[in-house]
């Protein structure tokens, strides 16, 4: 299945000059949605995964599905102040400032085998921050898994040393 047929380009969103890859047509089509989940799962190559870590908010679409199929737990990573229990935080640079992500302090145990999942790998800042959080809690990152990778932004360079796999490349 050509999943690119289900990705819509939105110009000048969320700001002027940005070309946004909108995955909602993929999510809305029952066949494409299910086939993309299968393809993302296949990229994991039957590796043992204890937890899938998904980033707010679009990492929440496929992250729990992957966790369920892998018989793993799911760990949400959220923006600062959105999680109710004790958290660990990581601040990272954006092209226009900084942002902070958090996860619950008890969400990853030492030695947990982790699959990190998000919808898009762009500049790599978010994914690199999540890798730092997971490793700070003692988790071992098996793979970083993305629906889309925007190759021209070279985000993979911030994930040097990790196994990075993406279903679609632009």
From TrEMBL:
Principal subcellular localization: cytoplasm
Localization per Swiss-Prot or TrEMBL: Cytoplasm
EC numbers for this chain: 2.4.2.7
Pathway the protein contributes to: Purine metabolism; AMP biosynthesis via salvage pathway; AMP from adenine: step 1/1
Keywords: Cytoplasm, Glycosyltransferase, Purine salvage, Transferase
GO CC annotations, alphabetized: cytoplasm
Catalytic activity: AMP + diphosphate = 5-phospho-alpha-D-ribose 1-diphosphate + adenine
Any one of the GO BP annotations: AMP salvage
Enzyme's top EC category: transferase
Domain (Phosphoribosyltransferase): residue spans on this chain: 27-148
GO molecular function: adenine binding; adenine phosphoribosyltransferase activity; AMP binding
Homology family: Belongs to the purine/pyrimidine phosphoribosyltransferase family.
Subunit and partners: Homodimer.
Known role: Catalyzes a salvage reaction resulting in the formation of AMP, that is energically less costly than de novo synthesis.
Protein name: Adenine phosphoribosyltransferase
Species assigned in the record: Pelagihabitans pacificus
């Amino acid at each position: 299945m050509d999943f690119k047929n289900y990705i819509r380009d939105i110009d000048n969103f969320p700001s002027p000059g940005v070309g946004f890859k909108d995955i909602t047509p993929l999510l809305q089509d029952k066949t494409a949605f299910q086939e993309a989940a299968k393809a993302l799962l296949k990229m994991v190559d039957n590796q043992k995964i204890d937890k899938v870590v998904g980033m707010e908010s679009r990492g929440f679409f496929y992250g729990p599905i992957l966790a369920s199929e892998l018989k793993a737990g799911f760990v949400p990573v959220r923006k600062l102040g959105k999680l109710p229990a004790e958290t660990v935080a990581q601040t990272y640079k954006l092209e226009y400032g900084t942002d902070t992500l958090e996860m619950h302090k008890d969400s990853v145990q030492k030695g947990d085998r982790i699959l990190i999942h998000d919808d898009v790998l762009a500049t790599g800042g978010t994914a690199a921050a999540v890798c730092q959080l997971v490793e700070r809690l003692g988790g071992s990152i098996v793979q970083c898994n993305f629906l889309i990778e925007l190759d021209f932004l070279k985000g993979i360079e911030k994930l040097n040393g990790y196994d990075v796999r993406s279903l679609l490349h632009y």
